[in-house]
């Protein structure tokens, strides 16, 4: 009898402990724009529209959030001043409302959430032969895949010139700095303004990349490689009291790296298609998953390691097993994606 009572003490302590109040930050990249995909253009602050596919992606993201119960939880929506972001936010919220959303969240547009400014190359195809010939492939790559590199500034003669306070050019570090200022000034106060708050932030690949890097403590060298697909909801959960992340940090992309993420991606049979490039051999998610499952670091996976690893990865996410099994069944044997082509010159 005494042993039975002793065994129950941890359970009683758990039941008596106060329940944590969780704040949820949902990050969402806009749907496909007319300069995404095969056009592969330096878009930056150019205010281009969504494609029909991009609008469909925004609606799908809202439907997914509604299906997962976030419709009645979202208290605030933050987005950039660019059409492709705020239209994605509007379409997603309309879809969410159709799944029970009724809190009528406030919406804030902030230019600090605008995409990274690409200076004089805004509006130019990334694979343009004249661009690569004039600046050199190594230079163009450094603008795209480093924290400090930035294209030459544009001036009043440029067709996509905007007067100050719009920047004339930016590095990824410059973009990250203004995004983090917005996060500290506006987003965090909304996220921690009360119990169980949920904030939706709809922005762009580089702005979200910079924010995620800060939240997860990603080294500068790894930030340009962070993968942010169109219209796939990315969730971070915080303890409202301590303001610390409550989700376990997933494995880094490379052994010995300080990178990794506390984020949880909401996947469906539809948005999973947009992750295929990351899941392809050598893709960032493939390597992250491999490292997470490789318990002894021998670069070989056994059946036991896979089973144990999957259980650990899903351990703090209620219902994940059912969701992943359902989505896996719906997307079994997906066809291989076609590679994106650069703009014709």
Oligomer: single chain
Question: What percent of residues are in strands?
Answer: 5-15%
Give the SSE string.
Answer: HEHEHEHHHEHEEHHHH
Gyration radius over CA: 22 Å
How would you state the average pLDDT, rounded? 80
> Which class do the helix and strand fractions yield?
alpha/beta
Largest sheet features: 6 strands, mixed
Intertermini distance: 82 Å
- Which stretches of 5+ consecutive residues score pLDDT under 50? 253-258, 314-345
Q: Choose one word for the global shape.
A: globular
Total DSSP helices: 11
Strand arrangement, major sheet: 3-2-4-1-5-6
Kindly state the number of beta strands: 6
Summary?
The chain has eleven helices and six strands. The chain has 345 residues and is α/β, with parallel strands linked by helices.
Q: Can you put this structure into words, describing what you see?
A:
The N and C termini lie far apart (82 Å). Helix 2 (52-67) packs across helix 3. With 345 residues, this protein is α/β, with parallel strands linked by helices. The model is unreliable at 253-258 and 314-345 (pLDDT under 50). The chain has helices spanning 2-16, 52-67, 83-97, 129-135, 137-144, 172-191, 205-216, 276-279, 284-293, 303-313, 320-330; strands spanning 22-29, 74-79, 106-109, 198-203, 234-239, 264-265. Belongs to the phosphoglycerate mutase family. BPG-dependent PGAM subfamily. It catalyses: (2R)-2-phosphoglycerate = (2R)-3-phosphoglycerate.
